Amino acid sequence: MAGVYISYPFCNQKCSFCNFASDVSSAETIAAYHGALLTQIRAHVWPWQPETLYFGGGTPSLMPVEKLRELMAAIPTLRLREITMEAAPGTLTHESVSAWSECGINRVSLGVQSFVNAELRQTGRRHNAQTVASDVKLLREAGIDNFNIDLIAGLPDQTRESWNESLDWVERLASPHVSVYIFEVDEDSRLGKEMLLGGVRYGAGAMPSDDLIAELYASAVTRLSGMGIARYEISNFALDGFQSRHNLKYWQLEPYVGFGLDAHSHVNGRRFSSSDVMTEYLANPLFRATDNATIAAEEHFFVGLRLDAGIEPTPEEWLRFAAPIDKWASAGLLIRESNRLRLSPGGVLVSNEIFADFLSLELGHA
Known about the structure:
Blueprint: E1 3-8, H1 27-43, E2 52-57, H2 65-73, E3 82-87, H3 94-103, E4 107-113, H4 117-123, H5 129-141, E5 147-153, H6 160-173, E6 177-182, H7 190-196, H8 210-226, E7 230-233, E8 236-238, H9 245-251, E9 256-259, E10 264-267, E11 270-273, H10 278-283, E12 289-293, H11 296-304, H12 315-320, H13 322-330, E13 334-337, E14 340-343, H14 345-349, H15 351-365
Parallel strand pairs: 1-2, 1-9, 2-3, 3-4, 4-5, 5-6
Antiparallel strand pairs: 6-8, 7-8, 10-11, 11-12, 13-14
Helix pairs in contact: 2-3, 6-8, 11-15
């Protein structure tokens, strides 16, 4: 079944490490964006009834409830089973969460990043651990028990002790889903530019080593497993039955359509996206840049191997990719079990290098 993604690229503040197509904007821009978004959605011809809907950002939890209802009215909802709202801690209220529940939203992803004040200050976030605890209480009171907590391993000033403090809070709040991202510095973010200049603002002089970051990630895998929260994708962990239906579509190469600034789609084997420049999107929300048809084998390995269950290569793929499969399996970083292939625990930590090997080989065949 297919999914829908809606981009709401507005925030109360820009995080120091962020390079997404999101920012603080004027009320006029936000109003114009909402109009363009409705135009794009209403013009879409729906070949299928979507199963999942995901509001991402930016900070879509800032969206006025009446605007949310307008968007929901423009989307086929007959078969929707999962509707996710990304939310910044501290932006939730009793009124907004109640309205989300009334609109059918049954999953919320909280962009926590850390429960430690020193780490949060370095990134520009305004919440603290008690803010998150209050938000979780609001969600549960509204009947939204399916929620995710985002954590980042490798933030400035992060230590083994502070990382364990964040994991303690995850256990205390009994989150059914946790995302653990390894911190990657984008050179176009404020933090990235400061690091390139050799400065210290935004915590540029307090970055953990790569070895420590890998250790933090590995400790999260162990701690979360002990809570019954199993890894099902490189960065995602869940209690049984709480895996993100929408995000699984990305990794299982199922179709989805995206609306809004820099929103991407995958339909009928093709990938395309809306403009990532606000003025361009507002001028013509119906225009989409169309990429070439995707390379099926490249997608299968590059995306599918992210899943803990791995993939089942076709007979042709076993032959075509025999060299990188043998290379990484011999190194203990890929595991072959009968007709399936998956990353080993060590392979997860160098997954980008492994994926690049398959990608370069496939491009060589193109």
